[in-house]
Amino acid sequence: MKKKWITMMGIALLSTALLSACGSKGNSVKLATGGNTGTYYSFGTAVGQILGSKAGVSFNIQSTGASKANIQLIDAKEVDMAIVQNDVMDYAYNGTDLFAADGAVKGFSAMAAVYAEVVQIVADPASGIETIADLKGKNVSVGDAGSGVEFNAKQILEAYGITFNDINKQNLSFAASADAFKDAKIDAFFCTAGAPTTAIMDLVTSKDIKILGVDEATADKLISAHPFYTAYDIPAGTYKGVDEDIRTVAVKATFIVSNELSEDLVYKLTKALFENKDAIASAHAKGKELDPQYAVDGISIPFHKGAEKYFKEIGILK
Protein backbone atom coordinates (compact mmCIF):
# COMPACT_ATOMS: atom_id res chain seq x y z
CA MET A 1 0.00 0.00 0.00
CA LYS A 2 1.60 3.23 -1.07
CA LYS A 3 1.67 6.28 1.14
CA LYS A 4 0.18 8.35 -1.66
CA TRP A 5 -2.89 6.14 -1.68
CA ILE A 6 -3.27 6.38 2.09
CA THR A 7 -3.16 10.18 1.84
CA MET A 8 -5.94 10.14 -0.76
CA MET A 9 -8.22 8.26 1.62
CA GLY A 10 -8.98 11.56 3.25
CA ILE A 11 -7.91 10.35 6.67
CA ALA A 12 -7.84 13.21 9.13
CA LEU A 13 -4.69 12.99 11.16
CA LEU A 14 -5.80 14.89 14.24
CA SER A 15 -2.62 14.47 16.24
CA THR A 16 -2.01 15.29 19.85
CA ALA A 17 1.43 14.68 21.33
CA LEU A 18 0.82 13.12 24.71
CA LEU A 19 4.25 13.30 26.35
CA SER A 20 5.29 11.21 29.29
CA ALA A 21 5.34 12.91 32.65
CA CYS A 22 9.00 12.19 33.09
CA GLY A 23 9.82 14.26 30.02
CA SER A 24 11.98 11.53 28.55
CA LYS A 25 12.62 11.62 24.83
CA GLY A 26 12.18 7.82 24.92
CA ASN A 27 9.98 6.04 22.39
CA SER A 28 7.29 7.64 20.28
CA VAL A 29 4.22 5.66 19.23
CA LYS A 30 1.72 6.71 16.57
CA LEU A 31 -1.68 5.28 17.53
CA ALA A 32 -4.46 5.05 14.90
CA THR A 33 -7.98 5.10 16.33
CA GLY A 34 -11.22 6.06 14.51
CA GLY A 35 -13.41 9.08 13.82
CA ASN A 36 -12.88 11.88 16.32
CA THR A 37 -16.45 11.57 17.64
CA GLY A 38 -16.25 7.80 18.12
CA THR A 39 -15.27 5.43 20.92
CA TYR A 40 -11.98 4.35 19.33
CA TYR A 41 -10.69 7.93 19.35
CA SER A 42 -11.81 8.83 22.88
CA PHE A 43 -10.66 5.50 24.33
CA GLY A 44 -7.35 5.66 22.47
CA THR A 45 -6.76 9.17 23.76
CA ALA A 46 -7.46 8.12 27.36
CA VAL A 47 -5.17 5.10 27.08
CA GLY A 48 -2.44 7.14 25.38
CA GLN A 49 -2.41 9.70 28.16
CA ILE A 50 -2.07 7.06 30.88
CA LEU A 51 0.36 4.73 29.11
CA GLY A 52 2.43 7.74 28.07
CA SER A 53 3.10 8.63 31.68
CA LYS A 54 3.39 5.09 33.05
CA ALA A 55 5.50 3.51 30.29
CA GLY A 56 7.62 6.55 29.44
CA VAL A 57 6.29 6.75 25.88
CA SER A 58 5.24 9.73 23.78
CA PHE A 59 1.89 8.98 22.10
CA ASN A 60 0.63 10.64 18.93
CA ILE A 61 -3.11 9.95 18.66
CA GLN A 62 -4.52 9.93 15.13
CA SER A 63 -8.14 10.06 14.02
CA THR A 64 -8.72 7.66 11.13
CA GLY A 65 -11.26 5.63 9.17
CA ALA A 66 -11.14 2.83 11.81
CA SER A 67 -10.38 -0.90 11.44
CA LYS A 68 -9.54 -1.53 7.77
CA ALA A 69 -7.87 1.86 7.31
CA ASN A 70 -5.85 1.32 10.50
CA ILE A 71 -4.47 -1.99 9.27
CA GLN A 72 -3.56 -0.37 5.96
CA LEU A 73 -1.80 2.44 7.86
CA ILE A 74 0.30 -0.07 9.79
CA ASP A 75 1.07 -1.89 6.54
CA ALA A 76 2.20 1.43 5.02
CA LYS A 77 4.36 2.12 8.11
CA GLU A 78 2.38 5.30 8.78
CA VAL A 79 1.47 4.25 12.34
CA ASP A 80 2.87 1.86 14.96
CA MET A 81 -0.26 0.82 16.84
CA ALA A 82 -4.01 0.80 16.21
CA ILE A 83 -7.44 -0.16 17.53
CA VAL A 84 -9.37 -2.56 15.28
CA GLN A 85 -12.18 -5.11 15.40
CA ASN A 86 -10.69 -8.57 15.95
CA ASP A 87 -12.75 -10.01 13.07
CA VAL A 88 -11.35 -7.42 10.64
CA MET A 89 -7.80 -8.15 11.78
CA ASP A 90 -8.50 -11.85 11.13
CA TYR A 91 -9.67 -11.03 7.59
CA ALA A 92 -6.52 -8.95 7.04
CA TYR A 93 -4.10 -11.52 8.41
CA ASN A 94 -5.64 -14.32 6.36
CA GLY A 95 -6.55 -12.29 3.24
CA THR A 96 -10.25 -13.20 3.40
CA ASP A 97 -13.64 -11.45 3.28
CA LEU A 98 -12.96 -7.72 3.70
CA PHE A 99 -9.35 -8.23 2.54
CA ALA A 100 -10.02 -10.84 -0.17
CA ALA A 101 -9.33 -8.33 -2.95
CA ASP A 102 -6.36 -6.65 -1.23
CA GLY A 103 -4.60 -9.79 -0.08
CA ALA A 104 -3.20 -10.76 3.30
CA VAL A 105 -1.41 -8.24 5.53
CA LYS A 106 1.17 -9.83 7.83
CA GLY A 107 3.10 -6.86 9.24
CA PHE A 108 1.17 -6.63 12.50
CA SER A 109 0.41 -8.70 15.61
CA ALA A 110 -2.17 -8.64 18.38
CA MET A 111 -1.42 -6.84 21.63
CA ALA A 112 -4.68 -7.14 23.63
CA ALA A 113 -8.45 -7.23 23.20
CA VAL A 114 -9.94 -4.46 25.31
CA TYR A 115 -13.75 -4.30 25.11
CA ALA A 116 -16.74 -5.89 23.43
CA GLU A 117 -18.27 -4.65 20.19
CA VAL A 118 -21.67 -6.28 20.27
CA VAL A 119 -23.64 -7.47 17.23
CA GLN A 120 -27.04 -5.88 17.89
CA ILE A 121 -29.87 -6.85 15.55
CA VAL A 122 -32.68 -4.34 15.92
CA ALA A 123 -36.16 -5.24 14.61
CA ASP A 124 -39.48 -3.43 14.42
CA PRO A 125 -42.02 -5.22 16.65
CA ALA A 126 -44.77 -4.18 14.22
CA SER A 127 -43.10 -6.13 11.40
CA GLY A 128 -43.88 -9.54 12.86
CA ILE A 129 -40.18 -10.38 13.26
CA GLU A 130 -39.63 -12.58 16.32
CA THR A 131 -36.36 -14.33 15.45
CA ILE A 132 -33.43 -13.95 13.05
CA ALA A 133 -35.05 -16.61 10.85
CA ASP A 134 -37.97 -14.18 10.33
CA LEU A 135 -35.67 -11.69 8.56
CA LYS A 136 -36.13 -13.64 5.34
CA GLY A 137 -38.04 -11.47 2.85
CA LYS A 138 -37.74 -8.35 5.02
CA ASN A 139 -36.09 -4.97 4.40
CA VAL A 140 -32.83 -5.19 6.34
CA SER A 141 -29.85 -2.82 6.61
CA VAL A 142 -26.57 -4.70 7.03
CA GLY A 143 -24.22 -1.75 7.54
CA ASP A 144 -22.07 0.12 5.06
CA ALA A 145 -21.04 -1.80 1.94
CA GLY A 146 -17.77 -3.64 2.54
CA SER A 147 -17.80 -2.91 6.27
CA GLY A 148 -17.09 -5.32 9.10
CA VAL A 149 -20.77 -5.04 10.05
CA GLU A 150 -21.82 -6.33 6.62
CA PHE A 151 -19.65 -9.41 7.12
CA ASN A 152 -21.06 -9.93 10.62
CA ALA A 153 -24.56 -9.83 9.11
CA LYS A 154 -23.60 -12.21 6.30
CA GLN A 155 -22.10 -14.77 8.69
CA ILE A 156 -24.97 -14.66 11.19
CA LEU A 157 -27.64 -14.91 8.51
CA GLU A 158 -25.80 -17.83 6.90
CA ALA A 159 -25.79 -19.61 10.27
CA TYR A 160 -29.60 -19.45 10.03
CA GLY A 161 -29.64 -20.63 6.41
CA ILE A 162 -30.31 -17.15 5.00
CA THR A 163 -28.31 -15.38 2.29
CA PHE A 164 -28.35 -11.73 1.25
CA ASN A 165 -30.46 -12.84 -1.72
CA ASP A 166 -33.19 -13.86 0.75
CA ILE A 167 -33.59 -10.35 2.19
CA ASN A 168 -34.14 -6.91 0.71
CA LYS A 169 -30.63 -5.79 1.61
CA GLN A 170 -29.77 -2.15 2.22
CA ASN A 171 -26.31 -0.79 3.03
CA LEU A 172 -26.79 2.02 5.53
CA SER A 173 -24.65 3.48 8.31
CA PHE A 174 -25.87 3.16 11.90
CA ALA A 175 -27.36 6.67 11.89
CA ALA A 176 -28.96 6.21 8.46
CA SER A 177 -30.32 2.82 9.55
CA ALA A 178 -31.94 4.40 12.62
CA ASP A 179 -33.50 7.13 10.47
CA ALA A 180 -34.83 4.60 7.95
CA PHE A 181 -36.18 2.50 10.83
CA LYS A 182 -38.03 5.53 12.25
CA ASP A 183 -39.59 6.17 8.83
CA ALA A 184 -40.60 2.49 8.45
CA LYS A 185 -38.38 2.13 5.37
CA ILE A 186 -36.61 -0.89 6.85
CA ASP A 187 -37.82 -3.64 9.18
CA ALA A 188 -34.51 -4.36 10.89
CA PHE A 189 -30.82 -3.45 10.96
CA PHE A 190 -27.49 -4.78 12.14
CA CYS A 191 -25.27 -2.65 14.38
CA THR A 192 -21.88 -3.80 15.69
CA ALA A 193 -20.82 -1.44 18.48
CA GLY A 194 -20.51 -1.16 22.22
CA ALA A 195 -23.81 -1.61 24.05
CA PRO A 196 -25.48 0.77 24.61
CA THR A 197 -24.68 2.65 21.44
CA THR A 198 -25.82 6.16 20.51
CA ALA A 199 -27.76 5.32 17.33
CA ILE A 200 -30.01 2.86 19.17
CA MET A 201 -30.28 5.02 22.31
CA ASP A 202 -31.56 7.88 20.17
CA LEU A 203 -33.94 5.56 18.31
CA VAL A 204 -35.72 4.22 21.40
CA THR A 205 -36.74 7.71 22.47
CA SER A 206 -39.34 7.72 19.68
CA LYS A 207 -39.71 4.12 18.49
CA ASP A 208 -40.29 0.68 20.00
CA ILE A 209 -37.64 -1.89 19.18
CA LYS A 210 -36.96 -5.59 19.57
CA ILE A 211 -33.40 -6.92 19.89
CA LEU A 212 -33.10 -10.32 18.22
CA GLY A 213 -31.15 -12.99 20.04
CA VAL A 214 -28.74 -15.58 18.65
CA ASP A 215 -29.76 -18.93 20.14
CA GLU A 216 -27.08 -20.91 21.96
CA ALA A 217 -26.75 -23.71 19.39
CA THR A 218 -26.35 -21.25 16.52
CA ALA A 219 -23.93 -19.11 18.53
CA ASP A 220 -21.80 -22.20 19.19
CA LYS A 221 -21.83 -23.07 15.48
CA LEU A 222 -20.92 -19.52 14.53
CA ILE A 223 -18.05 -19.34 17.05
CA SER A 224 -16.74 -22.71 15.84
CA ALA A 225 -16.69 -21.47 12.23
CA HIS A 226 -15.43 -17.97 13.09
CA PRO A 227 -13.35 -18.08 16.29
CA PHE A 228 -13.11 -14.30 16.56
CA TYR A 229 -16.71 -14.24 17.89
CA THR A 230 -17.62 -14.65 21.55
CA ALA A 231 -21.02 -15.13 23.17
CA TYR A 232 -22.37 -11.98 24.80
CA ASP A 233 -25.46 -11.09 26.83
CA ILE A 234 -26.96 -7.62 26.39
CA PRO A 235 -28.28 -6.88 29.90
CA ALA A 236 -31.96 -6.16 30.46
CA GLY A 237 -32.57 -2.43 30.59
CA THR A 238 -29.68 -1.53 28.30
CA TYR A 239 -32.30 0.01 26.02
CA LYS A 240 -35.76 1.33 26.82
CA GLY A 241 -38.34 -1.39 26.33
CA VAL A 242 -35.82 -4.25 26.27
CA ASP A 243 -36.66 -5.87 29.60
CA GLU A 244 -34.77 -9.16 29.44
CA ASP A 245 -31.20 -10.25 28.78
CA ILE A 246 -30.53 -10.91 25.09
CA ARG A 247 -27.91 -13.51 24.10
CA THR A 248 -25.99 -12.49 21.00
CA VAL A 249 -22.39 -12.57 19.80
CA ALA A 250 -19.67 -9.95 19.88
CA VAL A 251 -16.33 -9.14 18.36
CA LYS A 252 -13.62 -7.30 20.25
CA ALA A 253 -12.03 -3.90 19.99
CA THR A 254 -8.36 -4.88 19.95
CA PHE A 255 -5.01 -3.15 20.10
CA ILE A 256 -2.68 -4.31 17.33
CA VAL A 257 0.95 -3.29 16.88
CA SER A 258 3.48 -3.23 14.10
CA ASN A 259 5.86 -6.20 14.08
CA GLU A 260 8.65 -3.61 13.91
CA LEU A 261 8.04 -2.45 17.48
CA SER A 262 10.50 -3.97 19.91
CA GLU A 263 9.59 -6.78 22.29
CA ASP A 264 10.60 -4.62 25.24
CA LEU A 265 8.37 -1.69 24.22
CA VAL A 266 5.28 -3.82 23.57
CA TYR A 267 5.85 -5.68 26.85
CA LYS A 268 5.95 -2.34 28.72
CA LEU A 269 2.80 -1.11 26.96
CA THR A 270 0.85 -4.31 27.65
CA LYS A 271 1.95 -4.40 31.28
CA ALA A 272 1.06 -0.72 31.78
CA LEU A 273 -2.35 -1.23 30.14
CA PHE A 274 -3.46 -3.81 32.73
CA GLU A 275 -1.59 -2.50 35.75
CA ASN A 276 -3.33 0.86 35.28
CA LYS A 277 -6.80 -0.37 34.31
CA ASP A 278 -8.44 1.49 37.23
CA ALA A 279 -6.99 4.79 36.03
CA ILE A 280 -8.08 4.01 32.47
CA ALA A 281 -11.59 3.10 33.70
CA SER A 282 -11.77 6.45 35.49
CA ALA A 283 -10.83 8.21 32.26
CA HIS A 284 -13.15 6.20 29.97
CA ALA A 285 -16.09 3.87 30.69
CA LYS A 286 -14.78 1.15 28.35
CA GLY A 287 -11.74 0.81 30.59
CA LYS A 288 -13.98 -1.10 33.02
CA GLU A 289 -13.93 -4.03 30.57
CA LEU A 290 -10.14 -4.42 30.67
CA ASP A 291 -9.32 -7.96 31.76
CA PRO A 292 -6.25 -10.08 30.90
CA GLN A 293 -8.25 -13.27 30.22
CA TYR A 294 -10.68 -11.38 27.98
CA ALA A 295 -7.67 -9.84 26.24
CA VAL A 296 -6.53 -13.19 24.85
CA ASP A 297 -9.79 -15.10 24.28
CA GLY A 298 -11.09 -15.05 20.70
CA ILE A 299 -7.83 -13.68 19.28
CA SER A 300 -7.17 -15.70 16.12
CA ILE A 301 -3.85 -14.19 15.01
CA PRO A 302 -0.41 -14.34 16.71
CA PHE A 303 0.39 -12.07 19.62
CA HIS A 304 3.40 -9.78 19.44
CA LYS A 305 6.29 -11.32 21.39
CA GLY A 306 6.17 -8.46 23.89
CA ALA A 307 2.47 -8.98 24.65
CA GLU A 308 2.97 -12.75 24.73
CA LYS A 309 5.77 -12.30 27.28
CA TYR A 310 3.45 -10.34 29.59
CA PHE A 311 0.52 -12.76 29.31
CA LYS A 312 2.82 -15.72 29.98
CA GLU A 313 4.32 -13.88 32.95
CA ILE A 314 0.88 -13.55 34.60
CA GLY A 315 -0.19 -17.09 33.67
CA ILE A 316 -2.81 -16.24 31.05
CA LEU A 317 -0.90 -17.86 28.18
CA LYS A 318 1.26 -20.98 28.40
UniProtKB/TrEMBL annotation:
Nuclease recorded as keyword: no
Gene3D superfamilies: Periplasmic binding protein-like II
Sorted UniProt keywords: Signal
Signal sequence segment: 1-20
Database matches in CDD domains: PBP2_TtGluBP (cd13567)
Protein's UniProt name: TAXI family TRAP transporter solute-binding subunit
InterPro entries: TRAP_TAXI
